[in-house]
Amino acid sequence: MRVGVIGATGAVGKELVEVLGKRRFPVTELKLFASTRSAGTRIKTPFGEVAIEAFSPEAARGLDLALLAVSGDFAKQHARALAAEGVAVVDNSSALRLEDDVPLVVPEVNAAAIGKHRLIANPNCTTAILVVALEPLRRAFGLKRVIVSTYQAASGAGAEGMQELERETRRALVEGQPAGHAVFAHPLPFNVIPHIDSFQPNGYTREEMKVTWESRKIMGQPDLLISCTAVRIPTFRVHAEAVTIETERPVTPEAAREVLAAAPGVIVVDEPGANRYPMPLTATGRDDVEAGRIRANPVFGDRGLDLFLCGDQLLKGAALNAVQIAERLRAA
Ligand code: 2RA
């Protein structure tokens, strides 16, 4: 397939190219698009050296697949037009995720939603990591309420987020100066910030509401009660999520562990006696979402469960999920 990655120099764009290579996606020609500033730069890829181009609809003509890792405005302007020209499009932005005619897909959960569609939205990273573990529990025990608290890595804010964390940590430790900030609302080193994306009239942030809106759409349960508190922490990679659920039917930690162990995209890491549980350090670079600390939650009696998830948000939360969608589009 002739594949274009749009936003190829960003944190997600770079991962997209690597994941295409790792999964041996049948790329006959790779086109990399980024801002005019990067145009002409040659970069090494698993498919050979490729020169970055500035995007234009003409330059993208003839592509079979376009993977978009750019802004919502770009997606609004170009995604539908590309799909109308016969290009299969996977959009990583939030612009089209809740549109009725655009499936929002995590293949382990709702691959069937792809159907004959050629334009598919990739969910927010926090949502993708969550629903991979929630859906098998939902199928087995039913879901009534979900409460999530997240611990999100700097790379959720892109390459600039990672650079700011590194630079400001050095400033504090090496130069003895107060850490500064530009990408985040406050200095991130030695801090946690309960603020990701903009505040909404209901007091939640947009990041928190994305978890609610998108989880409902992907799992096809529009009435699911779900509340999220999203927090930025000073790690480079992997979003962690503490999840409490109330199920429709009785659940035990043993039964939940069994369900999660059999679920695609999830790996159970749950041996507290051996200090083994999900962590950013172990989940970094891993395709599967780690699930552990699985225990009964007494607040909800025999229908309550607590668990802790760690997922590489640049992989399952972004690039890997997008390429998995592309694999399904190719097979459709
Ligand atoms: C973040 N989830 O971590 C967002 C990125 N989409 O900032």
TrEMBL record:
Q: Tell me its EC number(s), please.
A: 1.2.1.11
Cell inner membrane keyword on record:
no
Q: Does the keyword rRNA-binding apply?
A: no
Entry GO MF terms = aspartate-semialdehyde dehydrogenase activity
Q: Which residues bind NADP(+)?
A: T9, G10, A11, V12, R37, S38, S155, G156, Q313
Q: What does this protein do?
A: Catalyzes the NADPH-dependent formation of L-aspartate-semialdehyde (L-ASA) by the reductive dephosphorylation of L-aspartyl-4-phosphate.
Which family is annotated? Belongs to the aspartate-semialdehyde dehydrogenase family.
Q: How does it assemble?
A: Homodimer.
Put simply, this protein is called Aspartate-semialdehyde dehydrogenase
- The gene that this protein is the product of is asd
